[in-house]
């Protein structure tokens, strides 16, 4: 069966009945299959917005093509980010007994369309993103035969670390700005004033 046909079938299950799919799925693929599946999914979720940009700029074919290429390029960037997230989750799941990186990649690849399909619609994107993350956790649990709690730890490890790092960086920037507001500039030597004037 072709990748496109399997992609359509799996996404149908992800929308209609993911629980049945996760419990019945027993196929074995190499690492290339989930990587290609995930790439196809990211390109599919970016394509509608890219086509919309192209249609709105139809009077300028160059701008239309650039808009379409930019959104497809953004899909590739998200694909790389998704692969990194899946590999880090696998590293964490490995500590709980998960074996087979292709299974983890499949657990992340299959719900990609659900997780990111309406990424440009506020609030809806948050709800679907959380539901897609839930599906990834359920898939990790089912594919690796580990508990849902352990799968959740593996799946949430990277997002939590990322949020902590972003919070620390933002707090440091705000603190530096606020602390800088309270300092008074001291007198400057004449040579530095001359350098500023020149």
From TrEMBL:
The keyword Ubl conjugation does not apply. The keyword Transmembrane applies. Keywords: Membrane, Transmembrane, Transmembrane helix. It comes from the Archaea. One of its GO terms (cellular component) is membrane. The chain crosses the membrane at residues 31-56, 68-96, 116-135, 156-179. Residues 14-168 form the Yip1 domain. It is found in: Membrane. This is Yip1 domain-containing protein.
